[in-house]
Amino acid sequence: MKKILFMLKHLSLGGAEKMFLRLLNYIDLEQYEVHIKLVFGDQIQSMPQHSNIKVSSIFAVKNDETKKLIKLCPEKIYVDNVFEKYDIEIAFLEGYPTRIISASSNSSSIKVAFIHTDFRFFHHSLNAFENCECEMSCYQKFTKLFFVSKAARDGFHSTYPLLSPKYEYIFYPPLSDRMMSFDEKYEKIPEEPYFITLTRLAPEKGLFKLIDAVKKVKDSGLKIKIKIFGIGPLYNAIIQKIRQENLDECIFLMGYCSTPYCELKNSMGYICPSDNESFGISIEESLFLEVPIIACRCPGTEEILHNGDFGLLVSNSAEGLFGGISEFIENTTLRSILKQKAIKGKDYWKIKLLSPSNFEKLCLPDTNI
Length: 369
Hints:
single chain; 7-stranded parallel sheet; 6-stranded parallel sheet; 18% strand; globular
């Protein structure tokens, strides 16, 4: 039986963590023993119960001391916390997991790194390294690099043009079994029409821009309601902004929900206000539930929406969102068009997403797919 080590920053709310749990469903646990090592102990997402899945963490909390220790002493962190020999060692997130796995003392393992973000716009992983040269040196130690989108790959190679990995792949996030079967069981719930956003409450997600757009929509005389599902560091600031703009009856923070598929399917449309996205998992989910989409234009949304073939792309600004949302509310023809575009996107991405057999191939040392 082969052994796989997955190292993640945490298992809190986020697209990367959601993708990981989906990927876990594709692993044959009769053939693979999986150890999930969390750099920090945050675990909101629930894990499948199986004797061949183990979960442990390195640090209970994330603070300046632990971050400095990883940055300066990754070899010690690895030796002190990874006690078994693994066939495959996977850094499932940029930054701290990549820093630690790159310091692996296991010379015989296949080492894999996942890149989820577009480094041109959101190079958060540098926090785990002394400088760009150090990060590039770490990536050179990996056998394979997996990018969740073309945008992530292009951003990486734009940042590190001299780095040429032996194997690299575009690894679009697979769908969960629950998502695949949800549409068959869905029954529409009578409710006042609303838009929906599923996101982390973080600076790069463009939520203040969305609030400004909603304010413009309301001031123009149109009725609007948005439900935002998610948690994050900007919760208090967003609440304050909503109250300041007198939008308490327009924008509702719904908190965390691991699978809000019913709420998503029941909505009139999905809004992605992000400043940048590499691959929008929630946009993918909206397509598969045939929900019309309005998204701020950036490389990641252009890719998943096929440059507007599968949804409405607007300029990445409050004004752009205001225009798109207003037209959606007022124009029934546009709503029908975007519904058909979502169905078209669903059919397109069905073919593109990961199959179980492809994951098996990725685990082999010299396989290209």
